[in-house]
Amino acid sequence: MALTRREFTKRALAGVPALAGLANGIGSGGFSPAGPNRSLIHGVQFGVQPFCYHDLLMNRENRPELLRRIVQNGFGMVELHATWCEPRFLAPGVTPAEARQKQREWRLAAPAEYYQAIRKEFDAAGVEIFTYYVNMDVSYQNAFIDFTDEEVDATFRAAKILGARGCIGSQGLKATQRLASFPSKYDLFMSVHNHSNLSDPDAINNEESFIRAFSYSPDIMATFDTRHYTAANGDCLAFLEKHHARISNVHLGDRKKNQGRSAPFGQGDAPIIELIRMIRDNAWPIPVMLEFEHGTLRTGLDETQRMFDYCKRALA
What is the CATH number of domain 44-315? Predict the structure, then answer.
């Protein structure tokens, strides 16, 4: 008899150890760096949004440690933020405007070999860079955030060299419309990421706003965040069923409805189990990136492992 979500969660939280052998016969937390698709679990490709490692500063100096953690948690796919690749220019005596200009100049001048070397690091670890996360936004009302066309091109070129299939950002509708023509130049997509702020008319926060973003170009896809969609009282399963062809990947997390708090897997209102089973049962090629923002006394490494093992049990 199939377990209900509540029964499953009770068993999962009862101290069931990390499952061995679910992922291609390899035990949880003990993956070899070699071999693709180490986190392909019963037809669902999992990856990690490295924001999960809250205790690790997101800079390029920490990239080796990031890769070590990704491999230790057993992932073969990642959504990589530009902050893990690019230098930072804020320093004593440097104004934000000066730092932003230095960053722009660096992006325009960065040689292909720089990004090729980063890709080799991830390839050697058996980790695919699925998407490249850069906020190419004009909605912050801050001229120092705004990307020039040349800088947008440079960002998509970098993503292509890294082996990513697309770029992702948390920009709103206005910026998305401006960016819509760029991905096709590089045979990539531009993915938009939803939040739960329903008061901002420019925000991507519900089905209607996603549909507007999709209308700008067939190259605009959705990075569908289950935490935020749930908090905004959206129906995650209905959205997945209706728009799965336009979903590039899922940010899988749990959260309470009615703008509630983020929660450990199974303790919020997001239909985590039902969603990943729907992807599995329909054989939809939608990678699932684990992400959390809830408070925890555990390390990011340990909390991420618990989330991943929860998903493995749900698909077993």
Answer: 3.20.20.150
